[in-house]
Write a structure and sequence with these properties.
Rossmann fold; about 475 residues; aminoacyl-trna synthetase; alpha/beta; protein biosynthesis; 12 strands; aa_tRNA-synth_I_cd-bd_sf; binds glutamic acid
Length: about 475
């Protein structure tokens, strides 16, 4: 399909650097890219930006891929599945970059720079002291090819710099509108350490061109890189690419999102018991909202409603309470049999074998769960009665003897019920009339506490149905013994 009046099919990429686990902010960038690609029937490409060989690690690439799969943001081309424009890891594309680097050097649009770190630092300080914003002085810009050739042969250490043309770079950001940069302030940037070690701002426009990328959606933190990449594109006469820079995600105090406030790695949210549907929904609302203000949206609804052009420019606040609220909504909505599958990693193994009990327990507790991790503590008493203090059986000022007598009375009633009828409605019908004689709190509090061993739990009728007659009677006996 065609977007923005251009004839080219949409090709859009997500280009993470595998220098750490998938960041929650990068997950949002991927989602927005993915939604845009889906809306325009475009191709979504995963490219791994691993030019930083020291910091890039295969395990981070795996973590990124696993995280995106968990969110079900699938791609059409990528390092794991290949495609017509591969390889999809920058570390495997060095020949391509070398070819382009040579071209720039031949055309005199780039040059070798031999300035030492110390020299550069001095230059920087001098500029700062004159109140100028620091940039490279251009000292090696006019070295002849012979001179630099000799120095290279001698083994002098060098980098490759781009001859940044001193012009105004202007582009139309799909979110932020017209953006202008004065490139004369940038100076001649380093684009490669050598022919085999290109840097991000060089490798990226080359790949975007080679992979026929039409749109780049990325975080606003990349805004200073955009003019540099556009200038490289212009140096090669590459086609124009459309840009959209997403607002930053901020902590509640509007500071940069950092580990100090919140988990920043997507996987931590998974481990803390958030559902992928929640995360997708939450991330979509970080900087965007649908016109009708609908808050619960699945991927299909997001594809329908998402509008890149309606993304806000201001930073988006990460509100953890909203995330918890959303997760609780999704948990409530999820079928209990399905939740029993999803909850596996959060419960002891022996609970998993009691599938029937597990599903019933989830049904009883899911209203109270904010995360899957909450379940274990809420539901443990169903699987094993905790060793509780008899004091929790006490209703107001009741004497132990009286409590025990009430529990015995209840026991007699309960043991007369046919096992087949041991369900919530029937139990309620039998026991509620007794409370009119013996008192509601006086009967129901000790009963509920005896069943759960806890001060707070679901109501006694629901618990009894789940535990069944045998276990219910056993727990009443335990309570009666504790009181004597
Ligand atoms: N590799 C860059 C990063 O992880 C993103 C590159 C881009 O989108 O141009 O921040």
């Amino acid at each position: 399909m065609i977007a923005d009046g251009s004839k080219k099919p949409i090709r859009i990429r997500f280009a993470p650097s595998p220098t750490g686990p998938l960041h929650i902010g990068s997950a949002r960038t991927t989602l927005f890219n993915w939604l845009f690609a889906k809306q325009h029937n475009g191709r979504f490409i995963l490219r791994v930006d691993d030019t930083d060989t020291e910091r890039s690690k295969p395990e981070y690439e795996q973590n990124i891929i696993a995280g995106l799969k968990w969110l079900e943001l699938n791609w059409d081309e990528g390092p794991d599945i290949g495609g017509s424009y591969g390889p999809y890891r920058q570390s495997e594309r060095l020949d391509i970059y070398e070819k382009y680097l040579r071209r720039l050097l031949d055309e005199n649009k780039a040059y070798y720079c031999f300035c030492s770190k110390e020299e550069l630092e001095e230059e920087r300080k001098a500029m700062l002291s004159q109140g100028l914003s620091p940039k490279y002085s251009g000292k090696c810009r006019n070295l002849s090819k012979e001179e630099s050739g000799k120095q290279i042969e001698r083994g002098d250490s060098s980098v490759i710099r781009f001859k940044t043309p001193p012009k105004e770079v202007e582009f139309n950001d799909l979110i932020r509108g017209k953006i202008k940069f004065d490139a004369s302030l940038i100076g001649d940037i380093v684009i490669a350490k050598n022919l085999r070690e290109p840097l991000y701002n060089f490798a990226t426009p080359i790949d975007d061109f080679e992979m026929k990328i039409t749109h780049i959606i990325r975080g606003e933190d990349h805004l200073p890189n955009t003019p540099k990449q556009i200038l490289i594109q212009e140096a090669f006469n590459f086609n124009e690419i459309k840009y959209a820079h997403l607002p930053l995600i901020l902590a509640p105090d509007r500071s940069k999102l950092s580990k100090r406030y919140l988990e920043t790695s997507l996987n931590d949210y998974r481990l803390n018991g958030y559902l992928p549907e929640t995360i997708v929904n939450f991330l979509a609302l970080l900087g965007w909202h649908p016109e009708d203000d609908q808050e619960i949206l699945n991927l299909q609804e997001l594809i329908q409603k998402f509008n890149l052009k309606k993304i806000q420019k201001a930073g988006a606040i990460f509100n953890i309470e909203k995330l918890e609220w959303l997760n609780a909504q999704y948990i409530k909505k999820t079928d209990s049999v399905e939740l029993a599958e999803k909850i596996k990693d959060f419960i002891p193994e022996n609970w998993q074998t009691k599938k029937d009990l597990l599903v019933k327990t989830i049904e009883a507790e899911k209203e109270r769960m904010k995360t899957l991790a909450d379940f274990k503590e809420l539901a443990d008493f169903f699987f094993e009665l905790p060793d509780y203090e008899p004091s929790i059986l006490k209703w107001q000022e009741m004497e132990n003897e009286k409590i025990a007598a009430n529990l015995k009375l209840l026991r007699t009633e309960l043991e007369n019920i046919d096992g087949m009828n041991f369900n919530k409605d029937n139990l309620e019908k039998i026991i509620m009339p007794l409370t009119e004689v013996w008192g509601r709190g006086e009967l129901l509090w000790p009963l509920r506490a005896a069943l759960s061993g806890k001060r707070a739990s679901p109501g006694p009728f629901e618990i009894m149905e789940i535990l069944g007659e045998q276990e219910t009677l056993k727990r009443l006996d335990t309570a009666i013994t504790k009181l004597s």
